[in-house]
Amino acid sequence: MIVLKSPREIEMMKKAGELLASVHKEIAKMIKPGVTTWEIEEFVDAYLKKHGATAQQKGYKGYEYATCASINDEICHGFPRKAPLKEGDIVTIDMVVNLNGALADSAWSYAVGKVSEETAKLLEVTKEALYKGIEQAQIGNRIGDIGHAIQTYVEGEGFSVVRDFIGHGIGANIHEKPDVPHFGLPGKGPRIKEGMVFTIEPMVNAGEYYMKMDDNGWTARTVDGRNSAQYEHTIAITKEGPVILTDQNDR
């Protein structure tokens, strides 16, 4: 069942989203060769506590950290670690913020120093794919229109869209209906309605879209060892169109 949110609930989630966006802006200042994702993890945990919020994914199904930190060929759910980031790496930091019971979810990929031309294009295309998906999140459209727009654009640029992880509704819980694939056919899936709140979070691989799981049971990575990137926003569907609750004002 898809739970529609009231304007009051959306406003509360927007406040959580604004806090989350501010965290990402601070992380962007930290990213450089030599920094560790463990330092980022500790910063995020402390920053959220300072602002009266908590990291919702900490403890979720046994996950131990406030952030997911996925480096290079890691698609998602990488663990924070104490090994330093290197020039040319990319790292995706993903988190869910709980502010007074309202949740917001956003992931962002960062270049560490100067990256290769292919990696720079991967980041650019993945980010643009996110916004092309958001453009389709209009009342009366279908969820499939979002995935189709993303897949068509990404594959046209020579990359691939991960199939095993998708966007999702969010509200009282991290994962709710509807499921939001980043691939598929237009005109398919649930009709988009006012009051829906969900994430769009394309994960895009430089090579094949297939993935494999690490022994830790959490971290997914590309089968061919090539890089993967991800950008994610939480959006609310309103009469005026989609509202980005985790907006960083980056466009």
UniProtKB/TrEMBL annotation:
<comment type="function">
    <text>Removes the N-terminal methionine from nascent proteins. The N-terminal methionine is often cleaved when the second residue in the primary sequence is small and uncharged (Met-Ala-, Cys, Gly, Pro, Ser, Thr, or Val). Requires deformylation of the N(alpha)-formylated initiator methionine before it can be hydrolyzed.</text>
</comment>
<comment type="subunit">
    <text>Monomer.</text>
</comment>
<feature type="domain" description="Peptidase M24">
    <location>
        <begin position="11"/>
        <end position="239"/>
    </location>
</feature>
<dbReference type="InterPro" id="IPR001714">
    <property type="entry name" value="Pept_M24_MAP"/>
</dbReference>
<dbReference type="InterPro" id="IPR000994">
    <property type="entry name" value="Pept_M24"/>
</dbReference>
<dbReference type="InterPro" id="IPR036005">
    <property type="entry name" value="Creatinase/aminopeptidase-like"/>
</dbReference>
<feature type="binding site">
    <location>
        <position position="77"/>
    </location>
    <ligand>
        <name>substrate</name>
    </ligand>
</feature>
<dbReference type="GO" id="GO:0004239">
    <property type="term" value="F:initiator methionyl aminopeptidase activity"/>
</dbReference>
<feature type="binding site">
    <location>
        <position position="105"/>
    </location>
    <ligand>
        <name>a divalent metal cation 2</name>
    </ligand>
</feature>
<keyword id="KW-0031">Aminopeptidase</keyword>
<keyword id="KW-0645">Protease</keyword>
<keyword id="KW-0479">Metal-binding</keyword>
<comment type="similarity">
    <text>Belongs to the peptidase M24A family. Methionine aminopeptidase type 1 subfamily.</text>
</comment>
<feature type="binding site">
    <location>
        <position position="232"/>
    </location>
    <ligand>
        <name>a divalent metal cation 1</name>
    </ligand>
</feature>
<feature type="binding site">
    <location>
        <position position="232"/>
    </location>
    <ligand>
        <name>a divalent metal cation 2</name>
    </ligand>
</feature>
<feature type="binding site">
    <location>
        <position position="168"/>
    </location>
    <ligand>
        <name>a divalent metal cation 2</name>
    </ligand>
</feature>
<feature type="binding site">
    <location>
        <position position="175"/>
    </location>
    <ligand>
        <name>substrate</name>
    </ligand>
</feature>
<dbReference type="Pfam" id="PF00557">
    <property type="entry name" value="Peptidase_M24"/>
</dbReference>
<feature type="binding site">
    <location>
        <position position="201"/>
    </location>
    <ligand>
        <name>a divalent metal cation 2</name>
    </ligand>
</feature>
<feature type="binding site">
    <location>
        <position position="94"/>
    </location>
    <ligand>
        <name>a divalent metal cation 1</name>
    </ligand>
</feature>
<feature type="binding site">
    <location>
        <position position="105"/>
    </location>
    <ligand>
        <name>a divalent metal cation 1</name>
    </ligand>
</feature>
<protein>
    <recommendedName>
        <fullName>Methionine aminopeptidase</fullName>
        <ecNumber>3.4.11.18</ecNumber>
    </recommendedName>
</protein>
<dbReference type="InterPro" id="IPR002467">
    <property type="entry name" value="Pept_M24A_MAP1"/>
</dbReference>
<keyword id="KW-0378">Hydrolase</keyword>
